[in-house]
Amino acid sequence: MMNGAMTARDSTTTVEPLDDSRERIARWVTDVAGALLERMSETTLARDRDGTPIDRGDLREAARCGLLGASLPVEVGGRGMSTRRWGRVLEHVGGACEDGSFALLVSLFPAVARMIHASGRADLVDRYVRGCITGEALVSFAYTEDSDPFSLASTLESAGDDVIVTASKTMVTGGAIADAYMTYVVDQTNGDLAVVIIDRGVPGVEVVPIDTMGLRGAGLASVHFRGVRIPRSQVMLEHGGLDHVQMFLNPRRAILCCAPVGRMERIIEDCVRRLSRTVRYGQPLTAMQVVQARLGKMKLALNVARTLLDRALLELDEGSAHPLFDEYVSTAKFQITEAAIALSLDAMYLLGSHGYTRAVPVERYLRDFCGLLAGAGAQDVIQTNLGMMAIGGAKKGR
Amino acid sequence: MNIVLSGTLQKFAQYQREHSIDAWTIQEGLDHLVKAHPALGNALFDGAGELRRAHLVFLNGDQVTSDRFSERVGERDEIEILTAIAGG
Description:
The complex is a heterodimer of chains A (398) and B (88). Chain A is α+β, with helices and mostly antiparallel strands. Chain A is 51% helix and 15% strand. In chain A, the strands form two sheets. In chain A, strands 1, 2, 3, 4, 5, 6, 7 and 8 form an eight-stranded mixed β-sheet that branches. In chain A, strands 9-10 form a two-stranded antiparallel sheet. Chain B is 23% helix and 24% strand. Classes of the chains: A alpha+beta (398), B alpha+beta (88).
């Protein structure tokens, strides 16, 4: 086992210029974070068994390697990668690291930091965006309340120079790990949704871990704000939170899928390796056409997923994607989720009884991929939205 | 004009999907609709009075942005408001 702390290089020491080619990006990731990814892979089983969140020290190491700052703007100390390049970094991380939770968190915290950067608030940027880059102040996204967006029960009340927040956010990815939360609460003075940053250490913040089917290292938690009193300066946005949350989730749908695509490729490679060593009727299973056909189906799914993802990332970079709910980005998220789950089931078909055991990690990948079903917009909601848009557009010319 | 609301918004208009409104512009139509169903106001507009960007507006099947809300529309025109939002 390599020691990440001793062997990982600082990202800025990489001499080779980076471009968008998968090979070059893979070399960069291996160079700056290979040892960390290897260590995270080796400790996946224990986290999955116990439901232990990824260690905060490992995320600080991810920051030191340059992963947490890779997609953040150069002027605040980030590397300023395009969405496309960042997506490919995550794709490689997803393929190289056995723990899907790691790539999920490495993608999540910078995504929240980007929203804080976009606020233009220098005080918040200094504290939380630079804090993300160094790994010292990681902010999670706390929105879900088990209600529709127009019926949130959370409240924000004025109290002189302070505000008082009361809210229960039921599903917060990284909630058990984060140092602060970007949360959405109804301002009682105007009835609109405000966006507030709340530090975890403030009195009245309670974090309750949630036991999950997959992504068990991702620190999913419910986060409760019980009359939390914070300075008004922690209110990042006074109104328009509904649009803000959609602007966060829209690109998130594409970014969320990058690591799973990398993992899909590794599943195919693992299947080929195992099946080529398995002999039946005097020949390796890979010589059988029925096996070749299913592998071909898996490869088709991977290629389609990559094509969808590449276009979605490109549209996000070019600014041609709708900023709140882009049809193509949502299509990519929907299809890649379905493809990843189907591909892991295909692997189980191919691996026979071995695929059903915990000795082969396909069952864990399947559980992890199922996390995409609800992430950044439930599949059925995305489907409904796409249907509504089709109906709206179909009336043209009538 | 006829204003059609997507499922999400119907709850603020007594679950009525279609609304026949006597108005000459989209903006006027939206204002009349909110007057008839005040609960729609906060769902449709933000604190600054702007239509929330999560709502997509179609005029006879063509998506239109708020800069066209003051254009004249006819009584047979159909305005459809689709709310493309998803949780996290």
